[in-house]
Amino acid sequence: MSQMVMTQLPLPASASTSRLVRFLSEWIDGEVAAATPGFAERLGQLFDLPDSIRISSALETVPDPSFEPGGLSIDAVRNEFFHGRASLIRTALRTFAPGSGHTRVRFPAENTGATATEATDPEPYLVFYAVLQRDIDFRARNLHAAIRESVAGFSPSLAQLCALDGALNEPLAANNRRLFGAIPRLLEKRFEFLVAQYRLTVPQGQHEPGQWAQSLATLRNDMRGLVLAEIETRLLPALGLIEALEEHTQR
User: pTM here?
Assistant: First the structure.
């Protein structure tokens, strides 16, 4: 399992430094050169004027939370985050493993009897990623909410921070949709590149299942790395709360 890079940036506003953006930028700057340049810089500019107005309005309406001690230890909250993250990673990676048992979504199996056109159709792989992406989003948001509730029980100042974190959820939702909504489109371009490379190795109009299987193996590895990077990015806000808790305790 790939080791996830831990960052001290709690909000997606700093997504331009995340592994997800670096991962996708390699595709843009390398094989998927047809895409528009400056991807990492523009992807990091998540806030436009309407977004800033919505965030400002949210900040003005953050209520003063009533502090109620939660009774949890720091280690318990830290373990809650890391166990939740590990579970999310295991579930996501299981969808890429052949013969890994029952799972609701699975990386499409190669149809060795398919024609060249059928075999190189990107739709099944894009649908697979879209379904997996929705599942990751749901689980990451639930983990974030659970960590927010746990951290709020340590002190009045952390309760205020968690109230702010909760108030920013909705204004930041549009930014998250833009960020993660760009991924399937870039994934499709990556698939088209792999198809083009494959066709250079076989006679025109013919299909070599064994050769295409190698391209699919590359795609599987690429998508697996992409999923890990996306999970890392989606969990940055929850990680920021953990780090705030640790800093508060040290003070």
Answer: 0.76
